[in-house]
Amino acid sequence: MKAAELHQKSVEELKAELTALLKAQFSLRMQHATGQLAKPSELNRVRKDIARVHTIMAQKAA
Q1: Model-level pTM?
Q2: Where are the strands (E) in 1-62, listed by range?
Q3: CA-CA distance, 53 to 38, in Å (whole number)?
């Protein structure tokens, strides 16, 4: 997900996106723990997307 896409979303949409990303991260962590994760790079991608959403929410709040 690109930061430009996130800048166009409202705060409510960003909160919904953050919730979805956190659920995805939990699911990926469980897959990793049980040895079923096919792409370990997905964990890093989701973690960075979460950080992007947090950053843009902070920018909009300021």
Answers
A1: 0.90
A2: none
A3: 25
